[in-house]
Design goal:
By secondary structure, the protein is mainly beta. The protein has 2 domains: about 5-285, Beta-galactosidase, Chain A, domain 5 (Distorted Sandwich); about 295-390, no CATH class. Helix content is about 10%, strand content about 35%. It is built from 3 helices and 25 strands. The strands form 6 sheets. Strands 5, 6, 7, 8, 11, 12, 14, 15, 19 and 20 form a 10-stranded antiparallel β-sheet that branches. The longest helix has 13 residues, at about 275-285. It is globular and about 75 Å long.
């Protein structure tokens, strides 16, 4: 396997250099390049490499899907962690590259650090590039994971940054800054997305707008602590990246345990923010769980509302339920009161419960994860009525439930 070219003809494309034993390098992400002959891919590989810099490395630096200091990358590394102070810098060697349609799976290992790596990349039907990675501790003692950052390069002409911030009643406020050398980093440490979340971090041509200017953006599909960044290096490489923001000691992997990152979604558009956001919309509407029909329902008060049928007959197949969510639901009292039988637009109005409980307050998210199973979110209220919230999905290896609770059985 040498060059992998994923494309949406006339729209966008992604070109990966999978030659050699190092992790794949991203040669191009942006406009569709058409059918590339062998000579063109060779020229593209030369053009993607940074030029020689006085007192720099002899070999050119090309950004890989997981930047490594061992490969000469001088910026933020993709994987950070250690084994009691050792094995803090990785040098993964690729074992296999599997291409299935528009999806690429890379498996690699670092025999010295005793770590395994799996990177998944996909060009979706809407033109989004999404990727995630898993790291496995193949050693015989604990390896502490501090962070896992996935990236894609953007052209040097992307010198203006747009993201969002805000507060209550002023959320999603856009802010623009010029991109100089260094790192523009946004971190969310609230335990969930909030009013000041970056949402989508966009880098683009100066003066880009809703319908003008080439733009590249990244979104971290994770409702917990996360980080997004855009970094411009003096060697001539600029990249977008992101991942979960891990607290100190939050993830310690015992032998043969693994960690899987959330999905990152990257969007490109040649003509402004409208086209960039349209890729996200088309992707969401293409999910199997997206509402595709509506039917009128007569409510007890005689009014009519349209109810979205997310699933046939507006009922989820029980085989798709997560077993943890099913056991949690058993702890929740049935609705009581005059409105207990009314449902409108997939919403059951506020009810009074006849049962008082000291258990944690549990909310079942009205969404379906990428594995096709409903997600779960838990929230606990202490005596001072402060909400402490942590999220878990069936895509992470960590357990946030109390041992012995029986919820996994």
């Amino acid at each position: 396997m040498t060059i992998v070219h994923l494309r949406r003809p006339g729209d966008c494309g992604l070109v990966l250099d999978c030659t050699g034993s190092r992790l794949p390098r991203v040669l191009h992400w942006g406009a569709d390049l058409g059918d590339l002959p062998a000579a063109a891919t060779t020229a593209l590989a030369l053009a993607a490499a940074s030029g020689p810099v006085p007192s720099g490395l002899d070999s050119p630096v090309v950004l890989s899907v997981l930047p490594e200091q061992a490969a000469g990358w001088p910026g933020t590394p993709g994987l950070t962690g250690h084994r009691e102070g050792a094995h803090f810098s990785t040098a993964f060697e690729v074992a296999s590259v599997d291409v299935a349609g528009d999806a690429v799976t890379v498996r690699a290992a670092d025999s010295a650090a005793r770590l395994g790596l799996r990177v998944e990349m996909e060009l979706t039907g809407s033109g989004l590039v999404r990727q995630r990675a898993s790291v496995v501790n193949e050693g015989d003692d604990v390896w502490t994971l501090d962070g896992l950052l996935l990236t894609l390069p953007v052209p040097s002409r992307a010198t203006e940054v747009l993201d969002f911030t805000g507060r209550h009643l002023r959320e999603r406020s856009p802010q623009r800054t010029p991109l100089g050398f260094g790192t523009h980093l946004r971190e969310n440490r609230r335990g969930r997305t909030g009013f000041d979340a970056a949402t989508v971090l966009v880098a683009g041509e100066p003066g880009f707008g809703f319908r003008r200017g080439a733009v590249w953006g990244v979104h971290v599909a994770w409702s917990g602590n996360h980080r997004t960044l855009v970094e411009r290096q003096p060697i001539g490489v600029t990249m977008l990246g992101g991942g979960e923001l891990l607290l100190a000691g939050e993830v310690r992997l015992p032998p043969w345990a693994s960690y899987q990152s959330p999905w990152l979604y990257f969007s490109y558009a040649a003509d402004g923010l409208d086209a960039l956001s349209a890729r996200f919309h088309r992707f969401l509407r293409g999910r199997p769980s997206h509402p595709r029909s509506a039917r009128p329902v007569t409510l007890p008060n005689g009014s009519t509302q349209l109810v979205r049928d997310v699933f046939p007959g507006n009922k989820i197949d029980p085989t798709r339920f997560d077993k943890v969510a099913v056991n949690i639901q058993k702890l929740i009292p049935d609705p009581a009161g005059p409105n207990k039988g009314s449902v409108g637009n997939n919403f059951n109005g506020a009810q009074n419960s006849e049962r008082t409980t000291g258990h944690s307050i549990i909310g079942i998210k009205n969404s379906v994860s990428t594995t096709g199973l409903p997600g779960m979110r838990s929230m606990r209220m202490d005596s001072a009525f402060r909400a402490r919230q942590r999220s878990s999905t069936n895509e992470t290896t960590r357990e946030y439930l109390t041992p012995g609770s029986g919820l996994n059985s």
